[in-house]
Amino acid sequence: MDREREQARARQLVMERRPAEDGGTRPLCLLLRGRAGTGKTELAFRLARALHQHHPDGVLYVDLDDVRRDGAVEVADILGELLRALGAEWIAPVFRERARQYWSLTHGKRLLLVIDNARHGTEVEPLLPASGDSLVIVTSHGPLYDLQAGAATEFPLAPLDPADALELLERVTKDARLAVEPEETRRLLDLCSGLPAALHIAGNWLRRHQEPPLARLLDRLGTELRERGIPVVEQLWDAAYDSLGPAAARLYRLLGHFPGPSFTLAAADVLLGRDLDTTEDALAELRAAGLLDGRGTDGRERLPELQRAHARRRAETYGDQSEREEALRRLVRWYLRQAQHADLTAAGPRLRTAAEAPPVPGTRDVLFEQPGDARGEAAARAYHWLEAERHALFGCVRLAHTVGTAGDTDWGLTEAAALCEPLWTHFLNHPHYGDHIDAFRWGVAAAQQAGDLPLLVRMRCQLARPLWEQGEFEEAERQLTQAWSTVRGAFGTSAPERKLAASTREFLGMLGSARGNWADAAREFEASGAVHEEIGNAYGATLQRYRLGEALAHLGELERAAALLERSRDEFAADGRTRLTGRAEFALGGVYARLGRGEEAGARYRAALEGTRAVRGVRDEARVLDALAELAASLGEESEAEEHRTAARELWERLGLAGAGSDR
């Protein structure tokens, strides 16, 4: 009933596994495969709970269906999630480097990784830890033929036999009718076809209907539906749905269209549009009926994809299209407002082109700032919210763009593009390249169709950066060239328009920097800075001075670079921008070192080190330590140089970039 044979076999494989002497062979991989409802995920969790003590370096979980788009998984994004779970304080921007980080951070570790809902071996292979002492449990509907031969031990999960199915049903229901009415019980077991998921749903359904005899319940549940040829589990879900009250049934129908794989109580409340008590009662009713996975450790509810499809079919049969459209419109606008507030809390005032979203009637805003917060707590809370809600945010962008493109409503396009602006702050801290590039493309298309030129320019700039960071330099240049063409052809002389024009030139300069075209970059930074000076945007002017100083240093104009970096460093410090102050100090130290001013270079590097440690910038700290080591070696102070090298090496190893060196 609890898959005892499979659990015993898995335990035996783990116990008989010989420890890898260097921790570098392939991990033990168990593939749990079977059709929907056979209990693959539940068995994976049982095995993880039973075997976690043998893997003291951590238990990791990823659900590939959470990030699957059009049938494909962006493996680089999954690697990013795993790296964050492993404590990496900096995530490399491209797949190749993320894979290298993951390999380094998992080498020699004893990890347990659960990979849920795999469809292809190519999705699994890059996620395998670099340690023969690790254990990987994969669930899939079928064999993973393209997984390296011999890489996984397969556990085909057939439906439960009648005895085990009955034992499970008895445990779920504790219902005396099962013994009193054996013929009806047999019919119920036949209906469930040995699928644990179906048995759990049937058990919950029976617990909700204690009074009628089983024969009458089974007549309602099975005969007519079987004649219609609806799949077994679908029959049980239909019966569970039919038992719901109006609010729970309405919420279930709407959840089938929720733009993400999981949701919070707050989001469900917005979708239902009633009041919080009603929403909580509706969710409790859905859990009791077996129509929700239940709240996980992250406080989020999940509706599995097969059930989402069922909820959508119930919506088509029993729902009202206007009800659904109004709920989704309310949800998109609520997410837009929360994302804008999270952006402001996390990043502070910055260039924004979209108007602030008004409150959504009948809903509550997320409280990012709370009484008694220590410095940085509200920002951390906002960053966490953006990352936790990213699937819903990306889904809202896609949904709004789709609705707006249809052209038969008065909303969608502006919301789609406006939602992308706060996703910029999310991208800078948690880059999910596949999702962000898709979202920013939708933002470009939506702003273009809406005729919102400032927002269109902003969207093209936002799209360009992840493109060039992924090596797509030509497309990034096309986006920025089109943005600049719009600026020159359509913008006037107002301060907001000039500020956006200056920002566009900054992006052009950053693209030049990424390509190593420092002369072009310097020209754009200087022009951008001049505009910021003219319109009185002090922070923008300081930022361009810093960028120009870096570009001039690469061009060999060291004295001028030093002057610009000194001034920008002082202005960043006066404005309380610790991270940027540290980066300016680091750049200044490099210029002083090249000018032969070793003592001053050391002082600037040490100041940069203090700043990076204050903001926990581990990657920046490693770079500074590498630079200090190089400077000490050039001055003949070899013991000090080795001390810095050792400290830097430890940090690079923490980042999964052992041996990366200061060129990173």
TrEMBL record:
It comes from the Bacteria. Residues 26-173 form the AAA+ ATPase domain. GO terms for molecular function: ADP binding. Gene3D superfamilies: P-loop containing nucleotide triphosphate hydrolases, Tetratricopeptide repeat domain. InterPro entries: AAA+_ATPase, AAA_22, P-loop_NTPase, TPR-like_helical_dom_sf. PANTHER family: HTH-TYPE TRANSCRIPTIONAL REGULATOR RV0890C-RELATED, REGULATOR-RELATED. This is Tetratricopeptide (TPR) repeat protein.
